[in-house]
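job 3f2a | input accepted
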Amino acid sequence: MVPDKAQFTEPPEGYTPAGARETADYLAQRLPVEIIDIAPLLALEDYYRTDPHWRQERLHPVAQALADAMGVSLPDTAEESLHTLAGEFCGSYWGKTAEPLAADVLSYITSPLLDGCVVYDYETDSTGGVYDLTAAEKAPYDLFLSGSKALLRIENPAANNDRTLIVFRDSFGSSLVPLLAQGHRVRGGYPLSGHGRAGAGGDIPGGSGRAAGVQRHRPSEQRDAEAKRKKRRCKAPALLYAFLRRRIP
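job 3f2a | predicted structure (249 res):
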């Protein structure tokens, strides 16, 4: 659970912001998950002023904590470079206040390893990089993994292991996942929100632990052909949400 930005602010009198910890505890009591508390690693400065999202360049401690919990080594940051997206970033708060609000600067991390990652988009049957400069022209935060997508696969040919990471993500995950992808051979991304199309685990490549293990060793052409066939059987957008509603009272 990503801590809400409001958790690090002084709330107005009578308002109590939602707590990520309470939500995580609620889910942990009902689902077979392990809680990794990242709130102590974050502060208000790790979020944009004009937007609720966090800043990728501040997420190394979070990525390292998650990697440690999964027993994965992340590469050294010595070869990383920080780049700034052209133009101003005026987040979702910017047009909702009568007070003048200075625009943010949106930065992103590159490295030879990240530059070598290949992202396959099952919606468009196309490949690209972890950063989509074309999508960012319309919505700057969509720079990260092209924004809301039903199903992506990131392949990291420079990984020092053969591990597969499957992520159910929301928009916060878009900027974090590239940092985690550096420690895995294959990473699959599924939407946690209602955006895009989502399928059940058995209908999507890598949707179960066993499928992910087999997929790792198939030729990429065979995986792509199989993914196209299975894509036609994808379910409605709210499938994951409906599943959780049935399981969580």
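job 3f2a | The beta strands are 81-84, 107-110, 118-121, 126-128, 152-155, 164-169, 186-191.
job 3f2a | closed
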